[in-house]
């Protein structure tokens, strides 16, 4: 069973729908025991960093996420879910992230008339092999919606990057923790393959 963490963020149902397409049992929940008993856990979401951290703390989900990571359960952060795994975000100064991984979330620079938020399809490059991307062609296209992006402290965890005015760390992998800035559940066949790879880890 896959637990999808419910913390009142947007875009959670589309992740559940994509997993059901893959024939997976997926439960949207904030029940601590259900999450801790799951085979895999996903933290999706669209929204503001500070509000999201407030909700995770309000529901005691910050502690549950740390416990899931400690238990070595495969864990996937998507979009805002990636950002929350890190230490801080320029979007919400003074708010601490989960700190599961080291790095900061910064605003996409104004550059050459690029629209912010970054919204649409961009190709990925793979600086190192990541288990989420097994079986995918070079430079596949995936769907992004974000105004802030990750600068990971350790380049060794970055498995995919994209360009949008700057180099964006688009996906990371560290032990049992995986995260994507883009939305696999909205990325057509490529995204379904990424979710399938996660399910099979």
Written description of the protein model:
The chain has 201 residues and is an alpha/beta fold. The chain has a single domain (2-199), classed as Rossmann fold (3-Layer(aba) Sandwich), CATH 3.40.50.880. It has six helices and twelve strands. The chain has helices spanning 13-21, 32-37, 49-58, 61-70, 80-84, 188-199, and strands at residues 2-5, 26-29, 40-43, 75-78, 88-89, 103-107, 118-123, 141-146, 148-152, 158-163, 167-174, 177-180. The strands form three sheets. It has a seven-stranded mixed beta sheet, with helices on both faces. Strand 11 and strand 12 (177-180) form a beta hairpin. It is globular. 42% of the residues are buried.
Helices and strands in order:
Elements: E1 2-5, H1 13-21, E2 26-29, H2 32-37, E3 40-43, H3 49-58, H4 61-70, E4 75-78, H5 80-84, E5 88-89, E6 103-107, E7 118-123, E8 141-146, E9 148-152, E10 158-163, E11 167-174, E12 177-180, H6 188-199
Parallel strand pairs: 1-2, 1-3, 3-4, 4-12, 5-6
Antiparallel strand pairs: 6-9, 7-8, 10-11, 11-12
Q: Gist?
A:
With 201 residues, the chain is of the alpha/beta class. The protein has helices at 13-21, 32-37, 49-58, 61-70, 80-84, 188-199; strands at residues 2-5, 26-29, 40-43, 75-78, 88-89, 103-107, 118-123, 141-146, 148-152, 158-163, 167-174, 177-180.
Structural class: alpha/beta
The CATH superfamily appears as Class I glutamine amidotransferase (GATase) domain
Described by strand count, sense and barrel closure, the largest sheet is:
7 strands, mixed
What's the SSE pattern? EHEHEHHEHEEEEEEEEH
Radius of gyration over all CA atoms, rounded:
15 Å
């Amino acid at each position: 069973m896959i637990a999808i963490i419910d913390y009142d963020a947007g875009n959670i149902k589309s992740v559940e729908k994509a997993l059901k397409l893959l024939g997976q049992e997926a439960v949207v929940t904030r029940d601590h025991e259900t999450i801790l008993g799951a085979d895999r856990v996903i933290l999706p979401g669209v929204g503001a960093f500070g509000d999201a951290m407030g909700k995770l703390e309000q529901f005691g989900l910050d502690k549950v996420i740390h416990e899931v990571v400690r238990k070595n359960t495969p864990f996937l952060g998507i979009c805002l879910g990636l950002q929350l795994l890190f230490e801080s975000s320029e979007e919400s100064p003074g708010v601490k992230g989960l700190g599961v991984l080291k790095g900061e979330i910064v605003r996409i620079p104004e550059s050459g008339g690029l629209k912010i938020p970054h919204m649409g399809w961009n190709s990925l490059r793979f600086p190192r092999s990541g288990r989420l991307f097994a079986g995918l062609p070079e430079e596949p296209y995936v769907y992004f919606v974000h105004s802030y992006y990750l600068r990971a402290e350790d380049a060794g965890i970055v498995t995919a990057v994209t360009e949008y005015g700057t180099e964006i760390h688009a996906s990371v992998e560290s032990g049992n923790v995986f995260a994507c800035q883009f939305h696999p559940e909205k990325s057509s066949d490529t995204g379904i393959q990424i979710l399938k790879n996660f399910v099979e880890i």
